[in-house]
Amino acid sequence: MHLIQMDSVQRWMEDLKLMTDCECMCILQSKPISIEKDEENELILSSQHSTCDNLQLLLKRAWIISTEFTRIAQKLEKNRWQRVHSMTVRVNCHVRSMINEHSMFTRNSSEQMHQFEKLLIDKCSEFTAFTERCIQTEDEQILKSMKSCINETLTTVAQYFGQLIELILTNEAQNLLRQIELSDNVYITESALSSLFSLTQEGAHLCRIIAKEGGVAVLFKICRQDCFRCLYPQMLRTLASVCCVEEGMHQLEKVDGILCLADILTDSSHSEATRAEAAAVIAQITSPHLTFTQHLSSFLENMEEIVTALVKLCQEASSGEVFLLASAALANITFFDTVACEMLLQLNAMKILLAACSDKQIVDTPYSRDQVVTILANMSVLDQCASEIIQGNGVQLLLEMLFEKSSSGNSAEVAACERVQQKSAVTLARLSRDPEVADAAVKLSCIPRLIKLCRSPTERNNSDSVLVACLAALRRLAVMSPDGLEESDFQQLVKPRLVDSFLLCTNMEESFV
Known about the structure:
Among the domains are: 51-169, Nucleotidyltransferases  domain 2 (Four Helix Bundle (Hemerythrin (Met), subunit A)), CATH 1.20.120; 183-255, no CATH class; 378-512. It is mostly helical. It contains 26 helices and no strands.
């Protein structure tokens, strides 16, 4: 009798642990009670939050639940039934807490939403009951037969969960867009815009939802109302985020968005901040990394006006941020066609950009210099560019860019510095077909710096792209000025095939220890 009682107590203690975990989740709203690995995903939640904060908590909870689904599948694969059950209980609690939290800050949930919530809760309960039966048996055959059922149930729960989250986010986007569209109050519109912008920062999927719900049209509606002029920068910043996805681009094309952007850029009555944010949208939609380009036909129709306005914005920029946004847009446009480069040449853009680089308050980061040297590299395909470079002391600037180094060690900044070095070498290589530019480069000691970058991996941060560009520039200058190189440099860096010199330079500091 005593033995039976002891077994029951032990079993009760084991069950109690799961029950208290559950109670902790529901009543204390997932405040962490342990620092063990399986508890590291718990959330500290508060009941007092704004709509935006509540949505952030919902997304965090959703991420945790998705992670738990993955971990349950992994434990299930290893037949760790006890862990599968305890994690299933925790997911069940997370799902219920998430639904309760969402109900607290959502008014008038749709019938469809309630149906999905009920489906998900019922399926989670069924899932927990399945896994509980698994820990009550040790028969391998029964466990094996139940495993496929649990896998199917897990898949179904994950699908229901994904559909519910999609519905919640769509509903939230619809509510915010409705607020923006119907409101004539600046403060209400500003608050809704702020929440919408926060949504766009949660990833491409949310941007797709906003675009599909007509977000681009709603945002441009603001741009056509003078009473909301003070909100234009905020609206354009949100628009730039939505246009990072293809659905946003399609919407932009449908509502003649590029024409509206061109009007904003060319209207000097708009604030510099508004025009800078319009430039940011242009930079986004003209990114050379985008695989979809259907919107570019209407862009080309307005390109001359846009390019002219962007050059003016670069020239009159009052801060480094404004210059960065305008120059980034110009840099992207130069990838389109040499027509854009010819426009820039006619607008004296080369002179303006070179002058801006001498002002450390305006061109103050490697990111800005990256945009400038991108424009120079793309313009350098034009023969007329060489004289502009000479007149603007551009060769000296390109040499300085070959010395670009990160001051912070931040990975993004280091990558920007590598791009500056690479593109300055590319620009030198292209421009050095002109004897006058090559002569200026030799006199300014560009050759020793190029050799240093080739021979010292640390100088180029071990970048292969910088090495290739420097070898190409060095070979071009060597043709124009063969006396500028020592014999060993010529034999190793110029005379062999480019690939052989590349392999030689990449192995220079290889350790054989």
